[in-house]
Automatic annotation (TrEMBL):
Recorded family membership: Belongs to the GSP F family.
InterPro entries attached to this UniProt entry: GspF/PilC, T2SS_GspF/T4SS_PilC_CS, T2SS_GspF_dom, T2SS_GspF_sf
Location in the cell: Cell inner membrane
Membrane topology, as annotated: Multi-pass membrane protein
Record-given protein name: Type IV pilus assembly protein PilC
UniProt main location, coarse: membrane
Membrane-traversing stretches: 49-72, 103-121, 257-277
Recorded superkingdom: Bacteria
Any Pfam family the entry gives: T2SSF
Organism: Pseudofulvimonas gallinarii
Length: 285
């Protein structure tokens, strides 16, 4: 049997152990390869789903900073030669430009420090990681994708381990570390506890409050028909397809959103800078 190490997680070890015991190690290794491939695909989809909003935010901040630091000061010098009071909106943008020029470096360093601090704290503290994962699940658009990805991983891992001959409780213990989200991992551990004392899996899933009615019903049918692995495969395929469609839709929707955000930022600053010119022209006229 493979000794558990950093390179071999609990799921891998459980499947290899079951394969050796049943004399079907070659089949199990093929199953592991397929499982890992699907897991990596889901992980890639999640990264893609998170990347687009991050790109929108980054580009917006970058363009805004460049306009405030390099473009607005040019207009400010020209406005000072007018010797007239500036419109309130224009003055507000100029004040923002001056503040950014004075504190921009500290703002950037603070932003980087916060990001690095959150990443470090997430790795070092399970409570922080739990809080972050819980917040991620509540983010509009991205949250539902995270839910579906966790459900797909749960169902796929449970189907593979149970089909390989791993007892249900041990299979669920392996699933807990494969969901990719601590909220679901904690829920799975509670499900393990419930199943260990004789509760049906579908009841334990329902009591967790995280699993949709469809998943609970599919688990109930699988338990009753003795085909839990087949039902979980169907659940996994459904949610994997849902994740694919959701990420593709998000990608398509965010492309025009990026352009709209950039256009809004540039348009707002252009209006603010040209208001004094319009005001001066009206005065002269």
């Amino acid at each position: 049997m493979v000794k558990q190490a950093v390179q071999f997680d609990e799921l891998y070890v459980s499947l290899v152990k079951a394969g050796e015991g049943a004399g079907v190690l070659d089949t199990v290794l093929g199953t592991i390869a397929d499982c890992k491939e699907r897991m990596e695909s889901i992980k890639g989809k999640i990264k893609k789903a998170l990347m687009y909003p991050a790109i929108v935010i980054f580009i917006s901040m970058l363009i805004t900073a460049m306009l405030l630091i390099y473009v607005i000061p040019q207009f400010q010098d020209a406005f000072q030669s007018f010797g007239a009071d500036l419109p309130g909106f224009t003055q507000m943008v100029i004040n923002a430009s001056e503040w950014t020029q004075s504190h921009g470096n500290w703002l950037l360093l603070g932003f980087i420090a916060v990001i690095m601090g959150v990443i470090y704290a997430r790795k070092r503290s399970r409570n922080v990681a739990r809080t972050i994962d819980r917040l991620m699940l509540k983010i509009p658009i991205v949250g539902p994708i995270m839910h579906k990805a966790a459900l797909a991983r749960f169902a796929r891992t449970l189907a593979i381990t149970f089909k390989a001959g791993v007892p249900l409780v041990e299979a669920l213990e392996s699933v807990a570390g494969a969901t990719g989200n601590i909220v679901y991992s904690d829920a799975t551990k509670q499900i393990v506890s419930d199943v260990s004392v004789g509760h049906p899996l579908n009841l334990a899933l329902r009591q967790s409050g995280l699993f949709p009615h469809m998943v609970v019903q599919m688990a109930a049918i699988g338990e009753e028909a003795g085909a839990l692995d087949a039902m979980m495969v169907k659940v996994a395929e459904f949610y994997e397809e849902e994740v694919n469609n959701a990420v593709d839709t998000l990608s398509t929707a965010l492309e025009p959103l990026i352009m709209a955000v950039i256009g809004g930022i540039v348009g707002t600053i252009v209006v603010a800078m040209y208001l004094p010119i319009f005001k001066l022209a009206a005065t002269i006229g």
